[in-house]
Amino acid sequence: MWIPTENEKYGVVLASFRGTVQHGLPLEIGDTVQILEKCEGWYRGFILKNPNVKGIFPSSYIHLKNAHVKNKGQFETVIPVEDSVITEMTSTLRDWGAMWKQLYVKNEGDLFHRLWHVMNEILDLRRQVLVGHLTHDRMRDVKQHITARLDWGNEQLGLDLVPRREFSMVDPDEISVTELYRLMEHRHRKKETAAPASTHHLFVHMKSLMSANLGEELEVFFHIYDGRENRPLSERFFVKLNKGGLPKSPEKTERQCTLFVDLGSSDLRKDVYIVVHIIRIGRMGAGEKKNLCSVQYRRPFGCAVVSIADLLTADSKDDHLLKVYACNTESEWYQIHENIIKKANSRYNLSGSNTGLAVALQLLHGDIDQLRREYMVLFARGVSITRKLGFSDVIMPGEMRNDLYITLEKGEFEKGGKSVARNVEITVYVLDIDGQILKSHVAAGSGEPGGDDYHSLVLYHNNSPRWAEQIKLPIPVDMFRGSHVRFEFRHCSTKDKGEKKLFGYSFVPLMQEDGRTLPDGTHELIIHKCEENTSLADCSRYLKLPFSKANLPSNNQTLKGTKESFWITSFLCSTKLTQNGDMLDLLKWRAHPERINDSLSKLKEIDGSEIVKFLQDTLDTLFGILDESSQRYGLKVFDSLVHIINLLQDSKFQHFKPVMDTYIESHFAGALSYRDLIKVLKWYVDRIVDAEHQDHIQQVLKASEYIFKYIIQSRRLFSLATGGQNEEEFRVCIHELFMSIRFFLSQENKGTSPVAQTQAVFLRTFPAVYGELLKIFTVREVADFVRETLGCLPTTVHADCPLEAVKLQCIAKTVESQLYINPESRCILLPVVLRVLQAHMQEQRDLVMCARILTSMLSLIKKEENGTAEPVVSKEVELIVESLLGVLLRTILEISNRPQPAGPAMRLQFQDVTGEFVACLLALLRQMSDRHYQQLLQAFSSKDNLRDFLLQIFTVFRILIRPEMFPKDWTVMRLVTNNVIITTVLYLSDALRKNFLNDKFDYKVWDSYFYLSVIFINQPCLQLESFSPSKRKKILEKYGDMRVMMGCEIFSMWQNLGEHKLNFIPAMIGPFLEVTLVPQPDLRNVMIPIFHDMMDWEQRRSGNFKQVEAKLIDKLDSLMSDGKGDETYRELFNSILLKKIERETWRESGISLIATVTRLMERLLDYRDCMKLGEVDGKKIGCTVSLLNFYKTELNKEEMYIRYIHKLYDLHLKAQNYTEASYTLLLYDELLEWSDRPLREFLNYPMQSEWQRKEYLHLTIVQNFDRGKCWENGIILCRELADQYESYYDYRNLSKMRMMEASLYDKIMDQQRLEPEFFRVGFYGKKFPFFLRNKEFVCRGHDYERLEAFQQRMLNEFPHAIAMQHVNQPDQTIYQADAQYLQIYAVTPIPESQDVLQRDGVPDNIKSFYKFNHIWRFRYDRPFHKGTKDKENEFKSLWVERTTLTLVQSLPGISRWFEVDKRELVEVSPLENAIEVIENKNLQLRTLITQCQSRQMQNINPLTMCLNGVIDAAVNGGLARYQEAFFVKDYIMNHPEDGEKIGRLRELMFEQAHILEYGLAVHEKFVPQDMRPLHKKLVDQFHLMKSSLGIQEFPAYVRASPVHFTNGSPRTCRNSVPNIISPDGGRGVARRRPLSYPAVNRYSSSSLSSQASNEVSNITGQSESSDEVFNMQENASIPWSHKNSTHSGLKPSPSTSSLSSNHSASPNVTSSAPSSARGSPQMAEKHKHSRENACLSPRERPVSAIFPNPLDPAQRAPAHQIGDTTLPRSDPNLSAPDKVRPTPSSWSLDSVKVGAPSFSDSVGKLLCPPVPPRPPYSAGSSAKSMRSQSPVSMSRSPQKTTVPPFTPSPTECQSTSLVSNSPVLSGSYSSGISSLSRCSVSEASGTELPAGDHPSHPLPPPTTLPNSVSSSSDEPIRRENKTPPPYSVYERNNPRRPVPLPHSLSIPPQTDPPALPPKPHQLRTGSMKLDGTSDPRVPRPRPLPRKVSQL
């Protein structure tokens, strides 16, 4: 049975548990669990990090820990009972763990590794703390280290600052807000600015000396030198180097490293240097040869200098290489460093070009103990300490030091009978009182241990040597007396054995007889002569002699007159010995009582360091004198005491204050002194008012704290000794003293008068006295003293009086003193404090100090645990609220509105003050109870006062919520602030309801209230969703979700407003909307209904809620763009409001509004999600287009529409879509007119007229059209601008515009354009954004982008999408799937501008624009088999399903992709298919032949390959397959309606043979020699092919003329005299520049499946009945034509209708041919999702728009030359003979007008008249008559007959079958039938009939064609029932100028017979006027530009 646990509440998981049992809870090792119940070895509970999931787990897996339970029961929380540092460490490490992994993911390697080290370090320290074996001090250090590391990590990861006290986290509820603020501020400041260290230390590490001429051992001495005062600042550091220049003892680091300690900040200047002297030890001369002499001397080597200032800027860890200099003359060695510093170059030079000293130098800052902790490695390894000469800036009590420094300065010696000067060496010894040499007490410097003696330098041949060598004698204090130093002088001979001969000595005793040590300074010592063998062992013999010339008696002239002398400088640094006689006299006052007065007077002149050395002895002396003769010396002792007390105020000696305190507590024995001290102090105070000079009195008052300490201690000692006698007398004395003080304080003076200054001095020291008085007096007595003393101060002081500030400081110290902490004294002192404080705050003076006082006061007030306050505390709060709350609010408002000061220090202070006042306000409000609020609100005398107060407090709260109020990481402080605000607001909202509703309604107060509430809810620190789970849990446990509380309060207050709600509509819609967008469900549920209420009230007021709608829509855009709102909100908004308005009368309009807003949200959410992505992609652009259109069409929000136009424009520019950018900007341009209306500043546009802005837009658009190579569109805008300039006579700009227009024309003709590919993309599935979901689009690809690249790009944009592997329309399961499916395939554009494309002589550069611009429709072909498939010949059943897609807008436009508006499906029959294929191949051959003739091709290879492909394929079966399929009796019998088409097919076959023959003739002319064999082979194969076709001779009409091309294609000019051209006849043509052969035809994929073409190309057999069929056709052609022409109601099959449309096959036709010799794959059923039909790569796709290029890359043509979608395309049902025959035709124009057949609707709407029957070739066909009426025929000029034919456009090259796209046919050229018709329709006839315009009657029989030919309409035909987009340049209001037709282009009737096979017909008859009416599909009118608002 499960039992709730009592003690087992909390534990840690020891081993992972999988939780595989029923209800099992999986656990990971280290998880912490809270246990709820237990049962037989099992626990039930949850993991603390996921409390929602509960389960069971074995008890053996859990290590239980002690814990404290809060809220016992269902909602209990468990707090582990452990050290708070451990708890914090654990939770922090858990938080870091997750973030640490994220750092790795984000590739922030540096922080990742640093954090990892810190985490490991914290874990190690945690282990030490948990083990608990640390000492108390070590534990403290470890905790400090842990918290420092935690703070560092939190700061690096951007986590919150943790308030701490003594390393433990502080609960903000348990301390006052002011205290919390102080803690936070302290931690923030600590983190922000480290206090500058007052002491500095220089670390030196001697590495090596590098020099070429070493070979002797060296000694290196470092010291710090003051270049300003020319004296050393430190003792020397001494390193010994071996002969290689490296340290002699490398293992002992303390011998190479030192720390120059205790440098003051003043020592870090430019003129303080590190000086290095280097001494060599060896022979006298550096270059001397080695001799037998083993004696070694210390000789100068070199010197180096570096400034300490250089180390401040250099990298601290850099090694320095110091240059070493040598002096030119040895006699200047002593000042070489000065010469180097002064740069006296003549006195020194480099000791060697390669000599350098390698040293590591580093400045360290801070206390030495701190350095020991920070640089543990340094100190652990060993480092010697090199001290400063003298004491450091701060002397610490207890510091022991006794060092005597002696510098060997110089000597004067006689020659001693020698001819040359001596080489003098000094040996130094220290001897004790007994004459024994003190061992190890002579040190050359730190680093090396001291020796017994010291040998000086030897300067060569110098009788006046100057050494300047400093030695240190660390002699113990007890050995000083009687000791002396002896200097022995020896001459060092350089001859023979190099002996050192003693010739004299000097000595100096260290202490004088009176106890004074050797005084500091230079001493001239006497050199006593002696012989070489003199023994100096008995020192008593010479100690009686005089030692210094200064001490010689005047009668001893002999020694005085001697020239020989030796100078030394001594300096004593001792904490125990003194050289001061006055000090000794004072201490020995009893020995010389007569000197007391003198000694007391001289005390002030003694150096402070001497006094503090003997502080206790001095004080004993003073009080001893006072006790013995107080009458005589009382005043002087008092003055001396004051001097010593004030001496300790000095920063150098302040650390001796504790020494004096200890003295007073433990050693002071003057029990009677208090009387004298009080008496003298009162005497001084009484003299203040009258005294002229206040300086001394001020010194006395400055010392009053310690004087009172002595007085009180003395009285206590007296009381102890006497049992409390004379108590009353003492009290009277103190009262009298205070009376005197109060009297002098009450004097009113000017601020600058001496008395005022004295008052200020007293006030500064007065608070320090309180603590002393409390030792004897009660709290109340002392509080009264203080109140009266502070109360007697003059109140009417000037604001600028310095005394005011001092008074405030005194109050501050009072409030911070021990006295004020006691509630008893607080009651007495509080009124005084409040009075002063209020006065200052009202005048905004000394706010820093006011804040400090207030903070201290409020930090003492605390509520008890149960939330109630003690009566005393309650009274205090009441007093403070009454006097300070109003002024505090005003102060915060005042300082928040002030501009922030400029300086950083001032700004910090400014922020501190604001923060402190805020903390005070919060602390005060937090302490206020119900009663306080009631009293506060009742205290207001009028409504106006209450209103002002409410407005003030609401404004202050708004200031507190500002993000800049507290630093970013102060979340704890912000939460406390918010908690206080919401509590206060709940109290004040009652006052609002009671006092400002109904007739007393005040809009301003209510508005302020709502505004505050809204920004409260929206502040970042309350958005719990953005926090980590642990942080969120903590906040919710402590405060709950304050947003919901405030939301409920808003709702409640709103409901109370009643009819006053109208005042807040629409103003509060935006703010409330912002609140509802906060992702908190409860808050949304509370707040969204307010909108219903607003709609209701607005409906009542104005009958609609347009205002509400407008405001909602405006606000939604800006809020959602800022990242607010989500899908859940959209659904919630929709559902809540729909439910609310169900019963309203205005339900319909309400639903409409909600639907609109919801749809807008959908789009805005999509837009925001897209914009989060990095790069500009189609998704971003598509989404912006969707939103832009929504704003225009559905919302009619013009300003938003224009904003999004510019956002879209920026996106396009970023993506370099310049054409789209132009179209986009054109949207705005079209909203403007050429008027002078002024427009306001808007977006980036300045204030300007509408004309100017439109002009600017025009120029920008033209520039972008230019960059996007869309020059034709730019030209139209240029014209429009030019017209404007012309109308204003602005000829300068007109000229520029005309030049710009001309340049655009040049670019059209000269620059190449890439032809884009188009792709159809379907987005299926619910996971796509709203604007894409289950829609299909056509996309314009980027330059050079093929299908695979496009597909990859789309998959990158939608990484979760699945590419569909088929092209069939998906079913509902895909539409409704929770996934993303992409269906992509290439489509072919169907151009609109057929007139340009089919006009002869138009250059390809121009045509290329019309092929790919302004495209509305696209086509895609899919082959399939209908019926049973003939395995022998697939072509019999190979049909093509042709899909036409119509877009909502033409491409290019404002986007690279537009949605498909309409799909149309038609089927093309096998026969029509065959006709298209051969037509295309013939066209391709003609083009290549022409290009070859006109020398446009650099080489002939393309023609060779094309000929080879056709001829070779034909031999292998080629055209024969078509003969087998369609020319057999069975087919003709079964398909009588196809007779005309069969004839057409045969005609095309013959035409192909003729073209091939002509092509071979051209080929022979140009073929290079090495390809002759191939040519021969082709000719042979061609003859085989002819015979296979059954052609012996070409029919007459074919033979009549060779291939004749006039309009850029192999076609005869019908209206001109035939120009019989020989194969070389094309040479003269040079109208176009030669262009390389287009190896890759991007749009040639209109081929049949290449498998199918292979089949054909590999079949060599021929249908048995083919000849018979041909004959039948020839014989039966007339009857067929009669039969067809008279047949009424002819309705072609779908295939016919598809052919009659102007489409041809698509690049995507998928193979469906049967397997053959080359193994093509089998085609699946029509609707099977076969992989072969999918979005495959080109090599995988059976037919694609992309072909691999088998040619050399050099032959590749520019893209615009390659695929030509605008080639003339024939209608397979129409014949196209070359000329209109003179024979009267049976077809008349009228018959055409009425002859269009009626097509079934199932065919689709792209319809043309059916094909009339073909007459015999001898007669003019009906097609001819129709052809003659086409507009294109007008462009034929009869004058062209004499001109060589035009070069065809390279883009007309049909490389359809040049390159196979079959996986099995790689690279071999297949025959003409290997292509389906081309994928492009651009060359097809220009127009189609609308669906409704099909005449149903049959065509009449042929009639005669009149000679005069009427030209048909040349209007561009638009699609019907489409609203025109405003994006097309061609739909602007400026009409295109009509181009007059030249006379030369009129068409005379021709009578000659045709000379060539006809070229496929170009124009459809649909372009003619049918039924005498014009085509209803006229160009779309441009919508009139809407008046743009004042944008």
Walk me through the topology.
Blueprint: E1 3-4, E2 10-13, E3 32-39, E4 42-47, E5 50-58, E6 62-65, E7 67-70, E8 77-80, H1 84-105, H2 109-131, H3 136-156, E9 164-165, E10 168-169, H4 177-192, E11 199-210, E12 217-226, E13 231-232, E14 237-241, E15 257-264, E16 272-282, E17 297-307, H5 308-313, E18 319-323, E19 325-327, H6 336-342, E20 348-350, E21 356-365, H7 368-374, H8 376-381, E22 384-386, E23 402-412, E24 424-431, E25 453-455, E26 466-473, E27 484-492, E28 500-509, E29 521-526, E30 528-529, H9 540-543, H10 557-561, E31 565-574, H11 581-587, H12 596-602, H13 608-613, H14 615-628, H15 630-647, H16 657-667, H17 673-686, H18 695-702, H19 704-722, H20 727-745, H21 754-765, H22 767-773, H23 779-791, H24 802-816, H25 818-821, H26 823-842, H27 847-859, H28 871-897, H29 904-927, H30 930-938, H31 943-961, H32 971-995, H33 1003-1018, H34 1029-1039, H35 1042-1057, H36 1069-1076, H37 1081-1087, H38 1089-1102, H39 1106-1121, H40 1127-1140, H41 1147-1171, H42 1178-1195, H43 1198-1214, H44 1218-1231, E32 1238-1239, E33 1248-1249, H45 1250-1267, H46 1271-1287, H47 1291-1310, ...
Parallel strand pairs: 15-22, 36-37
Antiparallel strand pairs: 1-3, 2-3, 2-6, 3-4, 4-5, 7-8, 9-10, 11-15, 11-21, 12-13, 12-14, 12-16, 16-17, 18-21, 19-20, 23-26, 23-31, 24-25, 24-27, 27-28, 28-30, 29-31, 32-33, 34-35, 34-37, 35-40, 37-38, 38-39, 39-40
Helix pairs in contact: 1-2, 1-3, 2-3, 4-29, 11-12, 14-15, 17-19, 17-20, 18-21, 19-22, 20-23, 21-24, 23-26, 24-27, 26-28, 27-29, 28-29, 28-31, 29-32, 31-32, 31-33, 32-35, 33-35, 33-36, 35-37, 36-37, 36-39, 39-41, 40-41, 41-42, 42-43, 43-44, 44-45, 45-46, 46-47, 52-53, 52-56, 53-56, 53-57, 56-57, ...
